[in-house]
Amino acid sequence: MAEIALQAIDQVTIAMDFDRGAGHDDVVKRLLPFVAAQAPDREGGEHAQVAQWVLDNLINVGSTDRGFRVLYGTFGRTGEYERRVWDFRLLVELVSADGEIYLRASDEAINVLVGALDTDVESAQIAAEVKLENLIKRGRLSDAQVAAQQARYRTVQYAETLRRKLEATRRDVRSVDWEEEVPDLINDALVHIEDRYRYENAILTNITQTRDEAEDPARKLKAAELVEIVADCIRRHTQLQARLQQAGSTFRFEQDRQQFSGHARRAVVDLFGHLLAPTLDLTVAQAARPVAAFFGGAAGLTPPRLPRLTHLIEQLLKSPQDKNHLLGEVPEPELAPLPDPEVFTDEQWHRATELLELHEVPRRLSGLLADARLLDPDLPWLVALLALHAVSPEIGVTLRHGNDQVLLAVDDGTPLHDPEFGGSDLLVGVARLGAAEPGGLAADDALRGEAVA
Amino acid sequence: MSESISIEDIVAGARLLAFGLRPKQVPSRDLDYAGLVKRAVEDDAFRELTDAIAEGLGLTVLAVSARTGMVLGPAEESVFEQRFDDYARRAMTGERRDLERVLHGVAHIAVAALAFPRPDDLASETYVGRVSVEQVDTVVREACLMLATRAAEAEEAGDPLDDAPELERVWRVYSRRPEAMRTKDGRLSPSTTRGIISKALKFLAEQGFLARMSDADGGTYRTTPRYQVQVRELAAGRAFAELLALQVVTVTDPSGSLHIVPAGDGRSGDV
Predict the structure, then answer these.
(1) B194 and B213 belong to one structural domain
(2) Which of B34, B77, B136, B200 has the CB geometry, 3.0–4.6 Å to B107, for a possible disulfide?
């Protein structure tokens, strides 16, 4: 499982690019070969289940926070022992612009892959590439492949950092120093990409050459894989660059949209600085009152609803009103009826039907139950239920379905002696429906007579 | 009507209040309403009378104008007050109620903060704000990140204590909560931050404070003049007073504090 988990993080990380990450189903699909390799003798469906299970556990489906929590002990400032918790996540579910949910690997997860905790992204990238170049020069391709993969993780991580920066730029233009800070930021990023691009192209030429000249097939394969990875890095950088170039126009567009305005200033509360940020910095216990106060003011009125006599019963019977409809659950109500849970298997039904195929001679329920118990410990329940149902069979329906016989049970006052059931020892028999009037009372009476006889 | 108050005047004043209780009605669509609003704006005595009736009912007249209509706020403990407990109630068991409450409350403050990012926006009568689920979530998350960075810099005792969960900081709770989860039927999960924000936005839209514009970014809304009045005249003040009671006072620049910090780690938001 641990191997598959690592593989899953790897797949998600590789699928992460500027805009989105991997879909749940894609990851499961990509995990299948690995699961299959671990247990080749199992079925494909089980492989998919295993892959899904691993993925769900990496997300930690089922917990409210979708994360992990580790307890550790440490000595506090005053020297006393404290137990603290550390929260982290491995795979994070996010929403793309078109509303789909996808996965991204957290920094913690990527660090697990890179095997380096808390390393600065940029310096780690340079280090990784220097290492890569050296390895290729010395012809150690399998080490080079590992290094190239690491470089790619770094690239992804770098793109992630830049993505966040750009999003911040897009959100609010007013307080951004557009004269110096933002252009500097974009320039730095472009210079960075230029460097990497040149560098990676050089590596690419180098290993393409190695690939073409290699004679040993394994070595050729290794080199070919390396070419792929480095080409992917280059593609990612190109994508990043395109984004950076759009940043300027995004800014100008937002500037037009958001419009600068200078109105007379009044002393009003700065909602973000005075309320939101301080509230976020409070403890949970302290924050309860300010948030409730804000809600009370901002939520408006609820005119008390007066009950009307005509609606009284309806209102009393109504389940407590829940504001859950505000969560977007109304647009897609679940209309499909729930399938009835199958208490008895097809085989049990088959056996019970066989048992109750009573030709002419009615039988006591006790005997039927005893027979059923021999076949299957759960079967008596089904037989008992069928017998109960037969006390008042739907003759009209049976006739309409064109059946000419119906199972009928009659209570003649004999008590039932059975370890599991109590009540009357019913006489169960099959009644033939000979009467012409369908579902009529006369037919019912006639049948009853026949069965008892 | 300055000399004596007639029964008709009281009826008219109460009717104006009744219009105010229907948040989606606007004076521009109802001649009767528009006439009453005009009278309240022009006739001080009538306005006073209306205010007095409102006060007796447990309401505060926050504003009367042709643009906003009659905007009423509930007095504290009034029958008209929207109860936070009812709003934040959740059917799920095994969750900590206090956390849910705080997250829902933070969502409401964040919606207002994003709808009126600068103090000027809250003051300017003609400003129309735009908010979307995505925007609110991202900004709160980044504010949380910023607070996390600051906490790390200040070298505060790091992770929360195991045995005192109520002493955990709100930003930790918020950043720990996932923004989305995959649900079987593809609906929004109510316990995610996006679910919580989406609920707040839809609720405000139902109350006539926001108007839905599109489904973009998880739902995009624009503010109505009523919301501006409500936040400015009532909500912000009340919450601010509570914060003052906790001795949390933040001094900010009049240009507002929602900034982008491009240098350093690129988190937006500066306090």
Answers:
(1) yes
(2) B200
